[in-house]
Structures are given as structure tokens and as C-alpha cells.
Backbone:
């Protein structure tokens, strides 16, 4: 499955997004599920799914779906 | 990367122009602050020779005045303090300010933790986040620290009881490599130290970050030195860093050095201790009222604040890190704390 497709699923599951949410445009604190607590769940889910370890700066910078996708590409995750 | 590099003369030289600029910035963007300055006799363009000459605001003012230097529409986050009297401080951040405070907290902590997120033991309870929409200031503090860790395990179960199995499980999995521990000071003592001592747990690879004051430990005769000594002797834990910070200067954490010996100021900050009667800075070694200084606050005029805490400066450029080395001695007595802002009101009148 392509990276963005996998990442959409991770976001939807971790943040319990209602069907039809425009995941690709999502930004931190846009919705109530993506608060600082949701962020912890999301980071752990991303690390599990893609087998990466994000460092502290990345966790802090991960402020949107787009940023997360770029971060994973930079980490060498296949498209 | 570290933010504990500037000697006191270097710090003074760097901070003074930045703080003077911030004072003008806030005067221009916060009418409320401009009024307060005018009442204090600090008119526009006042020249300052030292950081200690800059006008300070008592932290209490953030409870009664809407002090912000950004338009209402740019407010991204409003932080509130935990108020014992029902009054809470309100601190206004725009997106830039929120990002900056997070980044500076992070570089400060990374000085002692490193860039990698370590497995993390939280000396708190799982039920902290039960009510998601309104968790306490304690919950917010714990959450802020969770960014620095991974594979988080809580020491207390949902009934606030120490969960020995959970801690043992954590140590079996992660105890042979560096791991992170965070907790409020009295909880770290009461729930982790005692649990580890009584069960012979090995915490020697831990890095403990803790904050919150010693008042609740006074009846056990535990102060900072005793805390460090007994953790080291009974659990092997030696990497311990106390810190001091407040919501009114979010992003700034004064951090205890590697060998104890007091709290140190990150490069973008400083501390002054004042006599509560004359308001002059006291000689080092003399207790007084703590003033905290930070170049971070741009969205609200919180760059120079008089706290309601008592403290003492132990030395300057004589410790593990450069700059001032100080301790917090506790809260000011209530009347005296009120006095701080009364003096201010008199100056205004």
C-alpha cells in the first residue's frame, strides 16, 4: 500500500476520525481528537505502522498530515 | 546542543538590549501594559543600564488584567495557571509563541535527556486523563513532558495505588539502558523512591526530571540534598534534575545541574532576587523574592516578572554550568505576596 494510504489509515484509527474526514488537510488542534493527548497516540501508531523511531524534535514538529508524510519519506519509508 | 553556555557578563550583554526592545514592543502592542508602565514612571524610551533596572510586573497581574500584545483574532492558545484561590492567570499565545515555547522547552530538556526519546516511567496515575476535555494543570504538565519519552508506563494505577507489576515490567524491558522518569517531586518520593527501596528495584539507568516544590516533603525531613542522596544510595538513581518554571513564563525551565548545587538559567533567561522591602537586588546568599526574566514572551508582556516565590542565589559562574546558580525556598507568605502587588498599586496611584 502506498505511504499516504497507510498514513491515512493510521490517522483515522489513532484519532478516531469520522468517515469522510479530509485527512490530507488535517492540522494539529484542527479537531478536538488531535489534542496533545491524541498526539501521543498518533505518534505511537505511526511508529508502530512504519517501524520508525521519531526523535523529540520530530514529535514536536509533526503538526499536520503533510508534515508526517514528508517525515516518513525523509526516514526512507517507500512510497 | 545546549542552552547553558553564557557567563553572567555575556548574558547581561545579550539580554539587556533584547529585553529593552521587548519592553517597547509590548508598550506598543498592549495598551494595558503601556498604562502600567506609565504609572510606574517608565515612560517610552527610558534607557536601562542593567537588566535589574527593567520594570517588572508582579505575576498576580495576569490574574486580573488582560495582558496580551497580539490581536484577539491571533490567539491560538490561552494557558491558565492552577489557582488555589480560584483566580487563574491567563497567558495568551499566538501560533508562533506556542511553537517557540515548545521548542525552547525541548532544547532545554534535551541538554540532559538527549535528542532521542527514551522509554519513560511517569510517576503519576493513568486516570489523570480520564476527563479529556478538562484535565488539571498537573495533567497538562505531565502531557508536556510525555513528548520526551516513548513506551510510557504509569507508576500508579487507576485507583492511585503504586503498580509494582507495571514498574517491574517496565524495568525488565528497559531497565538495562537509559530511561526517563518524570514526576512531581513529592510523588517521585512517595511513590517511586519508597516503592523502589522497599522492593529493591534498580533505577541506576534512569534520568529523573522532577518539579513542584518541597512543602509536602517537609514533614519527612526531605530536602533536595537528602532526595538526591537517598535516591542514589537506595535505588542507584544519580541522574536527577529538579526544575522550576511557571505558566506565566512558558517555555522557560530553570534546570538543576548534573551535580545538584542549584538551578541554572538557560541562555535566554536570568534570575534576580530582591529584598521584599526595598526591592533592591540582595547580595548572593541572602534570601528574597524571585524575579524571573525571559526573552521568549512576545505575545504577552511576561518578559520580566516578579514571582511570589522566595529564593536565594548561591553563586555566579562557579558551578557545573555558567551563570547564576539558585534555589527556590518556597512560597512567600500570603500577606507578603499580596504586598508585592500592593506596592505596585501604590506606585500606580
Residues:
Amino acid at each position: 500500500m502506498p505511504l499516504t494510504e497507510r498514513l491515512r489509515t493510521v490517522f483515522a484509527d489513532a484519532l478516531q476520525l469520522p468517515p469522510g474526514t479530509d485527512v490530507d488537510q488535517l492540522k494539529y488542534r484542527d479537531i478536538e481528537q488531535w489534542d496533545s493527548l491524541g498526539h501521543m497516540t498518533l505518534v505511537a501508531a505511526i511508529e508502530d505502522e512504519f517501524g520508525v523511531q521519531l526523535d523529540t524534535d520530530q514529535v514536536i514538529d509533526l503538526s499536520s498530515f503533510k508534515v508526517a508524510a514528508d517525515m516518513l519519506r525523509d526516514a526512507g519509508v517507500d512510497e | 546542543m545546549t542552552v547553558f553556555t553564557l557567563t553572567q557578563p555575556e548574558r547581561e550583554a545579550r539580554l539587556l538590549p533584547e529585553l529593552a526592545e521587548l519592553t517597547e514592543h509590548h508598550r506598543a502592542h498592549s495598551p494595558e501594559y503601556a498604562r502600567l508602565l506609565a504609572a510606574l514612571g517608565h515612560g517610552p524610551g527610558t534607557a536601562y543600564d542593567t537588566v535589574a533596572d527593567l520594570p517588572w510586573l508582579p505575576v498576580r497581574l495576569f490574574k486580573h488584567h488582560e495582558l496580551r500584545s497580539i490581536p484577539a483574532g491571533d490567539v491560538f492558545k490561552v494557558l491558565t495557571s492552577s489557582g488555589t484561590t480560584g483566580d487563574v492567570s491567563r497567558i495568551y499565545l499566538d501560533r508562533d509563541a506556542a511553537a517557540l515555547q515548545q521548542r525552547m522547552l525541548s532544547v532545554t530538556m534535551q541538554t540532559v535527556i538527549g535528542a532521542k526519546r527514551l522509554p519513560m516511567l511517569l510517576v503519576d496515575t493513568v486516570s489523570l486523563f480520564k476527563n479529556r476535555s478538562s484535565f488539571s494543570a498537573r495533567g497538562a504538565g505531565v502531557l508536556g513532558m510525555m513528548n520526551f519519552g516513548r513506551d510510557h508506563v504509569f507508576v500508579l494505577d487507576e485507583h492511585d495505588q503504586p503498580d509494582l507489576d507495571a514498574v517491574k515490567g517496565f524495568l525488565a524491558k528497559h531497565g538495562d539502558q537509559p530511561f526517563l522518569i518524570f514526576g512531581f517531586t513529592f510523588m517521585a518520593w512517595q511513590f517511586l523512591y519508597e516503592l523502589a527501596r522497599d522492593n529493591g528495584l534498580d533505577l541506576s539507568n534512569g534520568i529523573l526530571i522532577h518539579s513542584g516544590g518541597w512543602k509536602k516533603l517537609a514533614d519527612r525531613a526531605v530536602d533536595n540534598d537528602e532526595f538526591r542522596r537517598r535516591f542514589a544510595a537506595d535505588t542507584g538513581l544519580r541522574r536527577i534534575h529538579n526544575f522550576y518554571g511557571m505558566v506565566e513564563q512558558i517555555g522557560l525551565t530553570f534546570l538543576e545541574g548534573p551535580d545538584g548545587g542549584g538551578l541554572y538559567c538557560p541562555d535566554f533567561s536570568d534570575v534576580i532576587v530582591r529584598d521584599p522591602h526595598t526591592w533592591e537586588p540582595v547580595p548572593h546568599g541572602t534570601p528574597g523574592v524571585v524575579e524571573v526574566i525571559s526573552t521568549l514572551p512576545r505575545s504577552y508582556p511576561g518578559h520580566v516578572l516578579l514571582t511570589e516565590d522566595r529564593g536565594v542565589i548561591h553563586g555566579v559562574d562557579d558551578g557545573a554550568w555558567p551563570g547564576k546558580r539558585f534555589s527556590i525556598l518556597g512560597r512567600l507568605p500570603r500577606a507578603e505576596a499580596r504586598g508585592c502587588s500592593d506596592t505596585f498599586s501604590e506606585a500606580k496611584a
